[in-house]
Amino acid sequence: MNYRHHFHAGNFADVMKHALMLGLIRAMQKKDKGFLHLDTHAGRGRYDLASAARGDSLVRRPEWPDGIGRLWDRADLPPDAAEYVALVREFDREAGNSEEAGPRFYPGSPWLARRLLRPVDRLALCEKQPEECAILAKEFEFSHGVSVQAMDGYVAPRAMLPPLEKRALVLIDPPFEAQDEWRRIVEAVREGLDRFPSGVYAIWYPLTERAKVDAFFDELIALRPPPTLALELAIAGEGSALKMKGCGLAVINPPWQFDQRAMPLLDFLAPVLAQAPGGGARTLWVVREKN
User: Fold this and answer.
1) Do 66 and 58 touch, CB atoms closer than 8 A?
2) Which DSSP symbol is given to 150?
3) What is the pTM of this model?
């Protein structure tokens, strides 16, 4: 697998995913009891956006200007977007960027989660790629409550659930480069639910072909999971030439009223991050709560 997230760091998908993730963490923290936050595909933890313009051998157009770049100087951000941008700005400044024109360093999901976690919470980071995992381990070697595992993220639910805290937020955010990626996600979710059915599972997915996403939903439904909410952001319509027209986050066992918290954020992001006509945002209950 040749995936390197720094080519995509800070793009529209990161904006949507990370802002929603912060909202999920805040919702989990409404209870005093701690929880395990498990990140199955953690990456290296931080990204130099200047390297996004340099591919393995070719100069490439960076993606962050159409993502975090569009939010950087806005004064009309809704609360969850405002907290997300503030955390990115804080990280960027501490990483050494003294420029005010735009971001230079972008935090991955591990660093954003670490900024919010309380002493009673625990962060477990899994990364399969040896080079990425070594960088990640270096980033968090002195961080209390954080563990880094050189592990295939799809094995993590089997290895780390149920948690000692009896509460968990699991982020499954794979690169979607393997042919069997969708199948492996469903198997990981199956194992997670078998071992810890009360956990909150957040699964990121790309919007490329609607049929693939609908088939994924059907496979989730076949697992007979707890209530499952899908949150989607499309930056272009179905007729667009863009390969990835948007992305989604499927949340199993979403915190109470999380759909109501997420919609103002998605409604704001949809026009701000749009790259072609026909996009938008929506929430969909894949599995509704039983009355």
Assistant:
1) no
2) -
3) 0.94
Residue among 36, 259, 45 at smallest CA distance from 169: 36
**Count of the separate structural domains present in the chain:** 1
What contacts 180, CB < 8 A, 6 or more positions away? none
Q: What is the CATH number of the domain that holds 252?
A: 3.40.50.150
Residue-by-residue pLDDT tens, the chain, 291 positions: 334 566 789 999 999 999 999 999 999 999 999 999 999 999 999 999 987 666 555 566 789 999 999 999 999 999 999 999 999 999 999 999 987 678 999 999 999 999 999 999 999 999 999 999 999 999 999 899 999 999 999 999 999 999 999 999 999 999 898 889 999 999 999 999 999 999 999 999 999 999 999 999 999 999 999 999 999 999 999 999 999 999 999 999 999 999 999 999 999 999 999 999 999 999 999 999 876
Q: How far apart are CA 78 and CA 80, in angstroms?
A: 6
Which of the residues are catalytic? Answer: 173
Range of the domain at 178: 5-287
Tokens of 204: 């990121």
